[in-house]
Design a protein that fits this description.
The protein is built from no helices and eight strands. By secondary structure, the chain is mainly β. The strands form two sheets. It has a six-stranded mixed sheet, with no helix packed on it. A two-stranded antiparallel ribbon has the order 1-2. The radius of gyration is 16 Å and the shape is globular.
């Protein structure tokens, strides 16, 4: 299910000079337990979408908005969240092996019991997001900013 809309923006309002802006909105949808491998959600508004127990392996969420999105116990291996805005989302118990969060903005996200092995968090902004019970083996936080502190690579 994909909903696409084109909005003609008035000059200088929201999108700059008279232009079209294409986006996908699935806000509030439910995909519980669905097989959505390799789906492309680039630039989509996925606010309050429920992906619990879904198989999203290899999916693309580049530039997407995940506000209060539920991904509990989902398979998210090799998923791309590059440049995504993720806020108040729930990834508890999810499998995110080799996922890519480069340049993402993560705020107040629940990763309790999630497997984040070999995840790329380079250049990611992370705020008020604990990783205490998550598996982080081999993950890369180079140049990430965590609660205002920048992580630098060792020489």
């Amino acid at each position: 299910l994909t909903l696409r809309a084109v909005i003609e923006a008035p000059p200088s309002q929201y999108f700059g000079p008279a232009s079209s802006h294409t986006f996908t909105s699935l806000a509030g949808s439910s995909f519980v337990g669905m097989d959505l491998k390799k789906s492309d959600f680039t630039g989509s508004d996925l606010s309050q979408v429920d992906f619990s127990n879904a198989d999203l392996e290899g999916a693309i969420f580049t530039g997407a908005i995940l506000n209060r999105t539920i991904l509990v116990n989902s398979k998210l291996n090799t998923v791309k969240f590059n440049g995504a805005e993720i806020r108040n989302a729930n990834f508890a118990g999810a499998f995110l092996l080799d996922a890519d969060f480069q340049n993402a903005k993560i705020k107040e996200v629940n990763f309790d019991g999630a497997d984040l092995s070999h995840v790329n968090f380079t250049y990611t902004s992370i705020d008020r997001t604990p990783f205490a019970t998550a598996v982080l083996s081999g993950s890369d936080f180079t140049e990430a900013v965590i609660d205002g502190l920048k992580v630098r690579a060792q020489s």
